[in-house]
Amino acid sequence: MVILLGLAAAALYGSGDFLGGLASRKTPVLVVLTLADTAGVIGGILAATLWPGPIRLAGLAWGVSGGAIGGIGMIIFYVGLAAGPMSVVAPVSGVVAVVVPVAAAIAEGERPGTGAIVGAILCLVAIVLASTTGENDQASAGGTLRPGRAQTRRAILYGIASGTAFGIFFLFIRNAGESGQLWPVAAGRIGELAAVLFAAVMMRTSPVPRGAGRTVPLTAVAVGVIDVIGNICYVAATRTGMFGVAVVLASLYPGVTVLLARVVLSERLRWVQRVGLVLAGIGVLLISA
Fold first, then answer.
1. Are residues 248 and 5 in contact, defined by beta-carbon separation less than 8 angstroms?
2. Which of 5, 189, 261, 284 is 20 to 30 Å from the Cα of 254, by its Cα?
3. What is the pLDDT of residues 152-196, one digit of tens each?
4. Strands, E, within the chain: which ranges?
């Protein structure tokens, strides 16, 4: 069951990122995140109401903290994508996001089998390859130039910072899920919304969509709902199997985003991305064996 739930979380996270990326092409990121998180809060509360359980302060605290840190990580990630090479920021962020919670799982005594370890390593490599865009950010009249060392170092720092935040989010939401039913998931969305609104205030950016029509708000709302369902699947995965396995599988979401871009937008897959998707499939098979 942990395999199915972990993959379901990855599919939902990847779909949400794809839709969020589309919406962000027409509207500022903070506006999209505000709409998505607001929908996520409403969806999380509704889900917690439909499947009621004991409300424990510890779970709510873990959820709010995890959501706030995840929201900060998302902001850092988007800033990094805008400031540095995407082909550096995204893979570094993806790897660190897995390493942090997996290290915690090992420290807690989890010892997966050899096949699962090899599969997890392949999935880790797959995350890097699937996230690689191959884009360079500096251009001139004579052609495309490679990013400088300072820019690359800055991109690595953005990737490490955002990946650490995402990894802590995975860890905290797991801890929140152990303290109750679905209320911690709703609390996580509240924490993320608070972080996004705080960032909007600090950056003096209005989080209210203006002149975006209906498509962008509806897309952002869909992102929030999808992410909530993804969080529910992820929490359920951590309850039904090893935490390390659940977080590795859930972290395969970049591959889903890449596939959707290929199918919906007809974007070409680079050879490294194709290799990454193949390795992801092999890794999942080894983990589930």
1. no
2. 189
3. 788 888 889 988 999 999 899 888 876 667 888 889 999 999 999
4. 138-140, 143-145
Tokens at 275, concatenated: 């290799």
pTM of the predicted model, to two decimals? Answer: 0.84
CA gap 130, 124 in Å, rounded: 10
**Going by C-beta distance under 8 Å and a sequence separation of 6 or more, which residues neighbour residue 30?**
75, 196, 199, 200, 203, 205, 207
Number of domains in the chain: 1
Assigned domain for 143 exists? no
List, in order, residues 6 or more apart from 183 with CB less than 8 Å away.
Answer: 48, 53, 55, 59, 60, 63
Tokens coding 252: 């395969």
CB 123 within 8 A of CB 283: yes
Tell me, yes or no, whether 160 lies in a domain: yes
Side chain identity, residue 286: L
Range of the domain at 240: 2-136+148-288
Place of tokens 């890449």: 258
